[in-house]
Structures are given as C-alpha cells and as structure tokens.
Amino acid sequence: MSKEILNGLELPQQLLTFLGEVVEKTKGYDVYLGGGFVRDIYYNNLNWESFPMTPKDVDLFFIPTGDVAKELPTLPKTYVNYDKFATEIPDMEERGVERVRGLFVPSLDTHDVQFIVYKEPMTQEKLANDMDVNICQVNYSVKDKIFYATDAFLEGHEDGYIEMLHTFDFVRMGKRLARMSKKFPKYYLSGDWDLTEFAESVSEHAGSFCDE
Predict the structure, then answer these.
(1) In CATH, what class is 2-158?
(2) How far from the centroid of its chain's Cα atoms is residue 57's Cα?
(3) Which among 80, 103, 122, 131 is placed 20 to 30 Å from 190, CA to CA?
C-alpha cells in the first residue's frame, strides 16, 4: 500500500516549474527534493481523511556529479537569507555537507527554500538513508522524476512511529525528535527518550536543517 502511494505522489505545478528552473541553471550537481515537503505530501496521501500537513519549507539537495565545473543556480526574484558553510553548522562537516544556503522564493506558496550542498557524489538511495529520522528518509530526483523511500520510512508511516537512525549531538537529536513528535502527535517515539527538557525549545521555523 505505501509503495503504491509513493509512486502516485504528485508535486504542485508551481514547485515543478521552480525545480525545472533550478536544474536548468545548475552545473555539476544532481538535484533532489527531500526532507519535509515530500514527507508531508506522502503523509497526506496516506491519511487522506485527516487534516493535511502543510510543508514548512523546501529542501533541495545538491549532489556533485564529478564534473570539474560546479555552479549553484542564481535565480531572479529570490532573496538569499543566509549562506552557511559546514564549519558553521554542528555535525554537518562530518556528514559530508559543504554548505547550506537559505532563500526566500515569493513565487512559491512554501516560500522558504534551502540549498543543501554535499561534497561527494552519492546515489539517490544513499541520500535518503543519510536523513536522520526514519519518517524523513524520502526524496525525489528532479532529473529522473523518481521518488525513493527507505524501508524505514515506509514502515514508520505505516506503523506510526518515529525513530532516530543516526547519532550526533545529544541536544540536537532531542530537539529534532521533539519537533517531529509535535508535528506527528499520533506517532509514538521509538527508543528510550525523555523529551521533556526539549519541549519548550522546539520551533517549527524554516531552516530546520541548520537547527543547533
């Protein structure tokens, strides 16, 4: 059932138009849509009778293809809110991320966009597995127009549980799980976690990839 829903996912036309422009102006990278946007659309299809989730931001992952020339897109009528290198973001350098750029895109209903740029080439499957929480391990290849999700993603949404699959800074893990638990209150938390100390510090702002 879950895989059938994954294959039937549809992205908004305004986003597809934007993604096409991004790919057209990008050199030396494959571009993937991942994170909460695809997750929330999947959840809405799986739970079509309940109140739908509203994506908070658009996460675009730039994976180098091995070409010498690399260039991130410069997009008209967009505004750069921040541009951080991995050394400024806890755990990101170890994860293989080179930089994170945050944009405001007025043409999209979901205005906040992040460019998450990796240092080394990787497959679509490996990128999905690199996501820290099981219910976020899903992405969409803009070039190939293919959705991919891990078994952990499919099982997490089918059985309704949240699980941290990678280990990094304890406070950041706690905040991350607290935010996921707040967003998906019907899902139970897998593992021995007490999120009481993190509850008040949880935010739902865009740019969650850079949360400290």
Answers:
(1) alpha beta
(2) 9
(3) 122
